[in-house]
Amino acid sequence: MKLARCNSTITKGKLKTDELINFIKLNNGQLYVVTDYGVFLGEVASKIIKLYDQEIPTAEFIQEVRIFNKDKEIKITRMHGEFVWRERKDTDNKKGKITRIDEKYLLWGQVEHLEKGWSILTEQRGSRIALPHSYKKKQKVGLVFRKYIEFQDWDLVNEQPFAYHVVDDRLVEYQLWKEEKTDEKQTTE
Which of 35, 123, 154, 167 has a Cα at 20 to 30 A from 80? Predict the structure, then answer.
């Protein structure tokens, strides 16, 4: 992991419940949907929502939606009977205004089979995740999160130590998981 600088813009808005599904259809990208009864992964392309073996959940059961790609994420969250959304869009720039770090998190399981352009990850505990991508059998997949960081300088006058905090995060992409090999050789002196 390494820190990078970028310019990142944020746009915000609100939606009524009956506007949600049409709003989702207008934004192409990978799809992450949290409902009252489960989490669904899929994609939106050409105004079509694609979920593996699932119908599109109705808006009244949706709690959060993320539509994402390498350049941006639209995050939609249910609040007080309506939905609020924010779009975070990045442009790479080494002299950018905000610091970011990308972290990859391993999804549970490994690819057991492929079906209609989807990879099905399964795990011994019984979990099953369908991803809208074709990976090879036995491969592991990670999900990249981008975290946006603000730093607070060390203040000797007020005895404030150097600190930082994450001000936002977003989903970026799926990536193959590469196991890092540790050097097991030990040196003796």
Answer: 167
Segment 36-45, tens digit of pLDDT = 988 899 999 9
pLDDT tens-digit map of 139-167: 999 999 999 998 876 666 666 666 778 99
Nearby residues of 5 by Cβ (< 8 Å), 6 or more positions away: 93, 94, 95, 96, 97, 98, 99, 100
Residues 174 and 131: their CA atoms lie apart, in Å, by 9
Distance of alpha carbon 123 from alpha carbon 81, whole angstroms = 36
3-state SS, residue 174: strand
Pairing of strands 29-35, 38-45: antiparallel
Provide the edge-to-edge strand list for the sheet that holds 118-122.
Answer: 110-115, 118-122, 128-131
In whole angstroms, what separates CA 19 from the centre of its chain?
Answer: 23
d(Cα 61, Cα 78) in Å, to the nearest integer?
10
